[in-house]
Amino acid sequence: MLEFLPPRIAACLLRLNLNRLYELRLRADKPLCVNYGGAFVFLGEIGVCSAAHAVKPTLHEVEETLLAACEHSVYSVENQLKEGFITATCGERLGVAGTFVYERGSVQAIREITSLCIRVPHDIPGCADRVYKQCFREGLCSLIVLGPPGDGKTTILRDLTRIVSQKTSCNILVSDERGELSAGELGATTDVIRFADKSTAFTSAIRALRPDVIVTDELLPEDYHAVRRATESGIRVFASAHLMRYEDVPQKLFDRYVLLGGLGEIREIVGREGEHVA
Question: What is the side-by-side strand order in the sheet with 39-44?
Answer without folding.
Answer: 47-49, 39-44, 33-36, 21-27, 106-119, 93-103, 85-87
